[in-house]
Prior knowledge:
Blueprint: H1 2-48, H2 58-68, E1 74-78, E2 84-86, H3 93-99, E3 104-108, E4 111-120, E5 123-132, H4 133-136, H5 140-184, H6 198-226, H7 228-244, H8 249-274, E6 284-285, H9 286-303, E7 308-311, E8 318-319, H10 323-340, E9 347-354, E10 357-364, H11 389-398, E11 402-407, E12 414-421
Parallel strand pairs: 7-9
Antiparallel strand pairs: 1-2, 1-5, 3-4, 4-5, 6-8, 9-10, 10-12, 11-12
Helix pairs in contact: 1-5, 5-6, 6-8, 7-8, 9-10, 10-11
Amino acid sequence: MRGLLVRYGVAMAAVVLISFLVPLGLLSRSLTADRAIAAARQDAQSVAVFAGGPGQSDTRLAAAVLDVNDGDRRTTVFRPDGTIVGEHVAASPAVELAILGRALTARTDGGVEVLLPVGGTAGVAVVRTFVPDAMLTDGVLRSWAVLAGVGAALLAGAAVAGDRVAARLSRSVQDLASVADRLGTGDLEARVVPSGPAEVASVGVVLNSLGERVAGLLADEREAVADLSHRLRTPITALRLDVDLLGDPEERERMAAHVDDLVSAVDEAIATARRRGTSSPGRSDAGQVVEDRGRFWRVLAVDQGRTIRVQVPDVPAPVSLATDELGAALDVLVDNVFRHTPPRTGFTLSVNVVGGLVHIEVGDDGPGLPTGDLAQRGRSGAGSTGLGLDVARRTAERGGGRLMIRPAAGAGGASVTLELPEALAKP
């Protein structure tokens, strides 16, 4: 942007300078030619005093011609009797016209001739002063060089001044872009100091207001989710009391463990909701998370006669997601398998690292995928996957990856994959 503004300013300055300097250059050339012709006319007039009239001697005329011919201009006198005083040249058509009594300036080979008729008792004499082209343009190139230098200096000054103005404007716009990028990545404390032109400064004010508004909305949302702690404590306590009334010790212990898991999940959800958006990104081993969630879901899978297959690599597969965040996304995908496939349908939890990408796949042996984009909020279907995929998609995007849904390899079934970049090792 800065370079574009400077180029635009220099281009405008160049147009203005050309509009002034070109006419000045032409005027300089015209003035030089006029000065040379005026000097030649003055020479002709000084000789014309002795060129006609009685009592004027040829000696004084020759002396006058010799006096004016000491420079580059050459003067010749064509007398009525046909004799020539001064430099001998052939009479041109312009000289013949001047003999008729007309003073004129005419173009000839190599320059310009100034003709001045002088009447006398013996007839009309013509004083001719020749001005070479070199004198007509003497100093023009030097004048043009000076004008070009002045133009270059003005253009340089315009470029420097334009660069200063463009730097101030671009700095303001870059600050806006930087703060907008920080807000987009979750740094809701980012603010810009409004600067620059009034229009750009007003954008900074609006951006700051937007950041404050978003931060307020997120704070309200976190508090609303946190209120669940008060709403869920009572039914969870009642559920725990009902579990304590069970007569079978094994069943009571199993249900109590489930209630404890429910309490932990609720507490974790509330803690996550209360966390600030500026906290550092999480990190977890995808293989370890998949193994943990596989053990969690194995009990329900055995109860429904499902076969669960867990495949993880022997080496760590680090991703930029917290353990609870990745586990919640996997729970959503596995829950979809239980919801949308018939009992005894097996499924697979696997982790593969390929080319710096970690593929976390949940595949099932169900009837397959329905049509439509199930990863969008509000979309669901009756096939092997359905509700909640938007949660998994957003989780994948927070980890810098994406969610992929496709038919599973083999006969039937569906495959949902979280493709995440492998996290770099901590320094």
